[in-house]
Amino acid sequence: MKSKYLILLLLVVSANCWAEIEVKKVLGDISIDYKSDSIWKKANADQAISLMGQPMVVPKPKNTETSSINVSAVHDGKWIVFRLKWKDSEVSEAEKLATFSDAVALQFPIKNNEMPPMIMMGGKDDPVHLFHWKYQYQVDAKKGKKTIDQIYPNMTIDMYPMDFKEKGNFKEASREQKDSFVGGTAAGNPQSFPKSGVDEIFAEGFGSSAVSESCQAQGFGEWKNGEWTVFIARPLYYKNGSKLAVGGKSHVAFAVWQGGKKEIGAIKSLTMIWTPLNILEK
């Protein structure tokens, strides 16, 4: 098994060692128009980036579900947007228990753009900044976060006060009253609230991921003919996060989860070396 991962790692490193994403400048406001076809006509051709199954920590995927991701990017001097494409035979969202969402993530160094930290979530005092798009967040933003009775319409809920199917003389509980009996929401866990599409995460090594309560990034994904196309737009400069500069260079890393293949957390396909990022002045 170790030799298998070593061979995969060597293949991925060999395929990606000459890859570089050149980011052209475009006119317009990317924070609003990041999906516009007119913007992407001016972008460089997609760069194919090889992925492999995460080999470092358990649980590890038994198979590599996503072998590559096609990437292009543009900027407007203030914002940068990445267009990410990968093959996936089905659309998956996290709804019922043991079902998971399709997802993709970008990772950037925070302290040193030229000499980034360990690619696996950074290191102590050398953090990374991640942007994590999930299809489930997009569904929630468009249709509203589903309630338990919507997910399990034939289930009688008898564990949440004031939320019985037959309420008798009890009045309908307010949203605040119901949320007080949901541990994550009551504790203010940012993962318990509806999202617009993208999480911003900071990490300093394995198991250190912390979701930011505020999020400036935007995202949108569309699945068509067995392929996802996802846009992730973010400001170039974050005072307390990753800082990208026009005319400067940095690095980026990628990860993909296929929810229908039970991929979540460490079970994912990813890049094992940083991909150089060149932000052109024009």
Report on the structure:
The chain is α+β, with helices and mostly antiparallel strands and 282 residues long. It folds into two domains: 21-53 and 72-141 and 198-282, Immunoglobulin-like; 146-193, no CATH class. It contains seven helices and 14 strands. Strand 8 (198-203) and strand 9 form a beta hairpin. The longest helix is centred in the N-terminal third of the chain and has 15 residues, at 2-16. It starts with a helix and ends with a strand.
Named CATH topology of the largest domain: Immunoglobulin-like
Q: Quickly give the CATH architecture of the largest domain.
A: Sandwich
Using only CA atoms, what is the Rg? 20 Å
The count of β-strands is 14
Question: Could you estimate the helical fraction of the residues in percent?
Answer: 10-25%
* Mass-distribution shape: globular
Strand content: 25-35%
Query: Whole-number average pLDDT?
Result: 87
For the sheet with most strands, the description reads: 14 strands, mixed
- Unreliable stretches: none
- Order of helix and strand elements from N to C terminus: HEHHEEEEEEHHHHEEEEEEE
Number of domains: 2
> How many helices?
7
> Which structural class fits the helix and strand makeup?
alpha+beta
